[in-house]
Amino acid sequence: MNPLDDRLNSLRASGRTLPGEGRALGAVALEKAQADPDRVIVIEGERHFSRGEILDLSLRLGGALKARGLERGDAIAFQLPNWWEACVVNLAAALFGFRIIPLLTIYREAELGTILPVCGVKAAFVPREFRGMDYPALMEGVEEHPLHVFTVRGDGKSNDDFAALVRHEPADPEVPPADDIKLVLFTSGSTGRPKGVIHSHATIDVMTRHTARFWSTGPGDVFLVASPIGHIGGSIYAFEFPWITGCVAMMADSWAPERAVELIDRQGVTFMAGATPFLAGLIAAAERAGSNLPGLRRFICGGASVPPELVRRGLERFPHATVSRAYGSTEVPLACPGIRTREEAMLRADTDGECASEIRILSETGEPVPEGESAEIVVKAPQMLIGYLDPADEDGAFTKDGFFRMGDLGRLVSGRFIQITGRKKDIIIRKGENISPLEIENALARHEAVKQASVVGVPEPERGEMVVAFVIPAPGASFTFADMTAHLTRLGLARQKFPERLHIVSELPLNSVGKVQKNELRIWALERA
User: Fold this and answer.
1) Among 157, 345, 393, 479, which is least packed by CB within 10 angstroms?
2) Cα separation of 37 and 476, whole Å?
3) CATH class belonging to 436-527
4) Which CATH number fits domain 222-423: 3.40.50.12780, 3.30.1370.100, 3.50.50.60, 3.30.70.1050?
């Protein structure tokens, strides 16, 4: 039995996997493709793909994977940019009961060596090359790498290339039940190692449907998908929304604000979502182009601290769009999906969206606090994770009555809007991605010249937060920025996690029990900027 089956059985025994109103994407796709096979749902560059084409390619890919010995319940990973082929991989998994493990393209040996074995990944889809990286070589370099490594956009001649796989005869689908595991996403946690967040077909389906109703998303919408598909946000916009709502996913494998303005104006893009740098970049590019993007009707900004003034600038620049913050996590995606109307968005630019889930603000004793008072945010929603891959990660993650502890502090405004006031979790959010300071600290501590290291995030307008390291060198040793970069490169840490500033200090601020006072360190970082 594979590790995901073991975990699913324990979650089913606990009663956490009840499907409720959610459906399996494979069943939805079969129905929608039969009803309107010619409807275009995916665009990348000049290529347009209909429901029927995506379904046919997915059935062929599923047949090829089964011929290689993969069975329903096996885990398959993809480490792909926002390419149309990933939409086929995702649907093939949904049709044949494979579990998907999305991987960010920035991951290197350190992350892959942790994630792939714990999920029992049997096959992985990677680019032949992307941004100078040889991904097959990267994957093969992982000690416990998948049995099958398939390339995407290779020469098309190898039997292990995606183009060859989809020439296989189509197979009959084996759509899994809605309470089966659909995907496992990894997010940094306070333990310093990535935590596997398990979602079922039902949790992702119901989240998509509820959010689509909130946003009034339908067949007339075109989503510009620039957020990475290895992340919960990009994956649902690329993979789920087109099938469930009839909208079009326009794939973009890199963020180029000027190009985004052109696409929105020329291709009829109506919707976009992304972290703070995406909104800031789009506003600046639109100003340079002299465009107010009249077709854009909604921009959702989240994943990091979003200044209210940036939201107001977006509302001013894009007069037909509802620009707002949103709030959620990998564990509870889009708990607050934004704000319904442009008028409300202008009034509530300093909030993180309207509560579309059951949200409570609890004191340290677990009691609800009066409205307007800041305390811990807990959430219960049908789109909530069914569990963590490692049961130990659930210690303290839920309240006794089943609410998930978001790890953030916030307050309710006017009874239905949430405003984030801080984070209980010591996590850095850079470009919308969670970064664990402890993971970086542990890596730095492996250098012989480092006696002690502490890492914090400080606000940075372009990227949300900047990673700053404080290091006490070992006696008689020196440790430079170049030493740090070379060391983290050797360890195979993702470049996005590298500290952007290094401060050498003789001591760190400690409390009475010897714990580093991170709040004090953040002040130091700002003073030394």
Assistant:
1) 157
2) 70
3) alpha beta
4) 3.40.50.12780
Beta bridge partners of residue 301, listed in sequence order = 274, 325
Handedness of CA 394, 399, 402, 407 (dihedral sign): negative
Instruction: List the one residue out of 245, 240, 165 whose CA is nearest residue 213.
Output: 245
One-letter amino acid at 34 equals Q
Q: Given pLDDT bands bounded at 50, 70 and 90, which one contains residue 189? A: low
**Distances in whole angstroms, Cα of residue 355 to Cα of each of 242, 246, 325, 439:** 24, 25, 12, 32
| Lookup: tokens for 238 | 């690329």
End-to-end CA distance of the chain: 53
User: Token digits for 221?
Assistant: 């919408």
Domain segments of the chain as ranges: 25-176, 222-423, 436-527
Judge if 222-423 and 436-527 fold alike in CATH terms.
no
| Contact yes or no for 212/244 (Cβ under 8 A) | yes
Q: Are 310 and 463 in contact (CB under 8 A)?
A: no
What average pLDDT does range 190-207 have in this prediction?
88
Three-state SS sequence of 34-95: HHCCCCEEEEECCEEEEHHHHHHHHHHHHHHHHHCCCCCCCEEEECCCCCHHHHHHHHHHHH
- Secondary structure of 194-227 in the HEC alphabet? EEEEEEEHHHHHHHHHHHHHHHCCCCCCEEEECC
Look at domain 25-176 and name its CATH class: alpha beta
What are the structure tokens assigned to 440, written together? 């970086």
Q: Tell me the per-residue pLDDT of 263-320, one tens digit each, with 9 for 90 and over.
A: 999 999 999 999 888 998 999 999 999 999 999 999 999 876 678 889 999 999 999 9
Q: Is the pTM of this model over 0.70?
A: yes
Q: What is d(CA 503, CA 481) in angstroms, rounded to the nearest whole number?
A: 9
248's enclosing H/E stretch is strand 248-251
Task: Please name the residue that has the structure tokens 């990227």.
Answer: 463
Q: Helical H runs in 348-423?
A: none
Closest residue by Cα to residue 468 from 505, 425, 514, 422:
505
Distance CA 328, CA 301 (A): 11
Which residues contact residue 178 at a Cβ distance below 8 angstroms, ignoring those fewer than 6 apart? 19, 22, 23, 24, 200, 201, 202, 205
The candidate with the shortest Cα–Cα distance to 83, out of 216, 254, 211, is 254
CA angle at residue 75 from 32 to 229, to 5 degrees? 60
**DSSP secondary structure code for residue 466 in this structure:** E
Residue at token pair 């601290």: 305
Q: Quote the CA–CA distance of 155 and 207 in Å, as a whole number.
A: 38
